[in-house]
Amino acid sequence: GLRAGGGGVSAVGGRLLFVAGAVLVAGGLAAFTLSVIGVAGGKQLLHLVRMVVTSFMTGTEALDLHAGAVTAYLAGETEQAAKIYIEQILPYLQFYLDYPEELLKTMLHQRGIIDCPDVLAPPAAPPMSGVERAELEWVLERIGWQKRWPDIP
Fold first, then answer.
1. What residues contact 23, with CB distance under 8 A and at least 6 apart?
2. How far is CA 53 from the centre of its chain?
């Protein structure tokens, strides 16, 4: 659904591209700067930047990847932005969208940002299986996202 108020618009659910497009068309592209907060910002990041969305607050801890894609796009490096989005953000999000609570804590811990990876009880979902965890680790290694703080750009 769509909610308006406080000088902004909130798109709830999976139709963020549709809502962003409708808002931009209704107001004329030059009349709006759009900020995206929450769930779909990372999943549809590159598409939203192409639609003149101006800022994001994503639900993942992959801010370096998200910032890299947006920065590349704004610098006119469209192919680099697409490469980061397609080759790094989307493979990670395939796992993150299924296990957001667990992976947020796990990744912040692996990256040395927090001391404890434990999810508070009761967890919102069952934990990731060993097979899924092994595939996630394969993806993280492949996309070069095994860095520890402060080596994160």
1. 9, 32, 34
2. 14
